[in-house]
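I have been asked to look over a protein record a colleague put together. Alongside the sequence sits a line of tokens, each denoting a local backbone shape. I have pasted the whole thing underneath without changing anything:
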Amino acid sequence: MKKREFLLQYAPVIAVGALIVTLGIIYRQPFYKMLPMLNTLVIMLLSANANRYSFLFGGLNSVVYGIVYLSEHVYFSAISAMLVSFPLQMFSFFHWRKREQGKRSPLKMLGVRGRLSVLGIGILAYGAAYFLLLPFFSNAAFPAVDILVFVLGVVVTVLIALCYVEGQYLNVLSCLCNLVLWLMIALRDPSNLNYLVIGAYNLFRVLQGCVVWTRKYRAEQTEMRERGAVAQGILL
């Protein structure tokens, strides 16, 4: 293993894992709150390399995250984790499996019209959740940010499931909003400080994933153009 690969892939996992456990012990955090964060360390390694098994383990981990979110009264994040992320990630795993090319699926871009459509749907979804669903959760914590994280999470999961590179780009925004949410939660209850640690780690891995997916997309497009040129030459 090259030193650079170790520093980028595994050293952060060891450091973040140690910090999560240390903070959990200091603040006597229940193990069920630490468990999904430790699982995430492995899942994000898979996701950054566009490995479809990140969806399988991520879906199972979503259920555990949902339990944590319920305990913190961030209900829209709980809904996203248990009723949206879990089934969609399981679908993503089997969808990629059917279209298997080694261990990855062909990547694609939305285009301008597709991006505008996604933006419009996201705005409508946010408004619907805020005005129609929020009244059912009277003790919801930080609902404006929680709903934003919820909507972004659904959009990101669907786009990545369909192999759109923009899903990774929007995932950066989702991670930033999630960091803001957990900062507010940690200010209320410092025992949740390690969720800021895993949030920062998620952001690092998602940024890495953006680079990986963009390079894979460009490589695939180049390969397709070369094949097209060869096929055209044969026909001529």
Q: What stands out?
A: The chain has a mean pLDDT of 86.
